[in-house]
């Protein structure tokens, strides 16, 4: 999946310590859990993906939104307990 991080790369790095490379790796995880729409989305347009990044060494939650045929990265952070449980339950 190709994701445009033009507008949010600095934000995820500064706010959450996440590198774009890690977020993209989590999106590419073959076991990634994709939740559409994101349960926390106010607009109902965003997608939550929970995947593993070997470069980071942990699960990462990535929020994306599609607009005009392009997928934009909106946010990303180290997965919390709830997202970690969701990912593990899905893999079981």
Largest sheet: 4 strands, antiparallel
What is the number of helices?
A: 3
Tell me what portion of residues adopts beta-strand conformation: 25-35%
Proportion in helices: 25-40%
First-to-last CA distance? 24 Å
* Cross-sheet strand order for the largest sheet: 1-2-3-4
Mean of residue pLDDT values: 96
Total strands: 4
Order of helices and strands: HHEEEEH
Report the radius of gyration as a whole number of Å.
Answer: 12 Å
Characterization of this structure:
- With 92 residues, the chain is of the alpha+beta class.
- The protein is 30% helix and 33% strand.
- The protein contains three helices and four strands, in the order H-H-E-E-E-E-H.
- The protein has helices at 9-16, 20-28, 81-91; strands spanning 33-35, 46-53, 58-67, 70-78.
- The chain is globular and about 35 Å long.
- The termini are far apart.
What would the keywords be for this entry?
four-stranded antiparallel beta sheet; alpha+beta; single chain; 4 strands; 30% helix; 92 residues
Set down the secondary structure blueprint.
Blueprint: H1 9-16, H2 20-28, E1 33-35, E2 46-53, E3 58-67, E4 70-78, H3 81-91
Antiparallel strand pairs: 1-2, 2-3, 3-4
In short:
With 92 residues, the protein is α+β, with helices and mostly antiparallel strands. It has three helices and four strands, in the order H-H-E-E-E-E-H. The mean pLDDT is 96.
